[in-house]
Give the backbone structure.
Amino acid sequence: QVQLVESGGGLVEPGGSLRLSCATSGQTFSRDVTVAWFRQAPGKEREFVAALFRGGASTHYADSMKGRFTISRNNAKNTVYLQMNGLKPEDTAAYYCATDRNVIMSSIRLVRAYDYWGQGTQVTVSS
């Protein structure tokens, strides 16, 4: 059974940084596995943030996160990270980790492409 557990959220001032972690169990980062981060602000739909496509063959980011967020992984720890720099108040949201096998390139930004989700970790950017 695949399980994902996010951590690392919290309250940070504008311009600050946080590193989120997604610890996975029940699967390894094999070449057919894609891991992604999404976020959801109150009253808004869940949106794509970043993804490690097919075992890390490529990385993908939402346009508003490029240059500020970095997705990475530690295979030995079965953990995926999201380093977030230059945080803005509009980055405030619950951040979720998601994964699935055989996600196709055209679907990596879609919520419905992923069957396995973590419980989320809250990020609040405020002074």
Remarks:
- The longest strand covers residues 93-101.
- The mean pLDDT is 95.
- Residues 37 and 97 are 5 Å apart (CA to CA).
- The two ends are 40 Å apart (CA to CA).
